[in-house]
C-alpha cells in the first residue's frame, strides 16, 4: 500500500509543479501590466510637470518615478509650511484674545459700541425721511 500513496503524492506534486511553471509567466505578465499602468497614471497626473521638464523626449519609467518622488516631496514641504503658518496664526489670535480679556476691553471701538447700543433700542431714535 505504501508505494501507491507515494506514487499518488509524486503525481500530485508533479502536477502542482507543472501548474506553477505554467502560471508563473502569466502572473509575472500581470504584475508588469499593473506596474506599467500605475506609471502611466502617474505620468498623466503629473503631465504638466513632465512637459515642463522634458517636452520632446520620451521619459523612462525611472524618470517618471524620480519626478513623482520630487513632486511629492515638494508637496509635502508646502503642506508642512502651511501647517506651521496656520499654527502661528492660531497662536497670534489666541494671544490677542487673551490680551483683550486681560485688559478688560472690547475689541470694538467706543463709537461702534454706542452705535450698537442705540440700534438695540430703536424706539428712542427712529429716523424718518418726512
From TrEMBL:
Biased composition (Polar residues): 106-119
Region annotation (Disordered) ranges: 94-130
Top-level division of the source organism's lineage: Eukaryota
GO biological process, one term: negative regulation of cell differentiation
Biased composition (Basic and acidic residues): 120-130
An annotated Gene Ontology molecular function: DNA binding
Matches recorded under InterPro entries: bHLH_dom, HES_HEY, HLH_DNA-bd_sf
CDD domains per record: bHLH-O_HES5
GO cellular component annotations of the record: nucleus
Pfam families given in the database record: HLH
Subcellular location: Nucleus
Positions of the BHLH domain: 19-75
Keywords assigned: Developmental protein, Differentiation, DNA-binding, Neurogenesis, Nucleus, Repressor, Transcription, Transcription regulation
Keyword ATP-binding: no
Purpose: Transcriptional repressor of genes that require a bHLH protein for their transcription. Plays an important role as neurogenesis negative regulator.
Subunit architecture: Transcription repression requires formation of a complex with a corepressor protein of the Groucho/TLE family.
Protein name listed in UniProt: Transcription factor HES-5
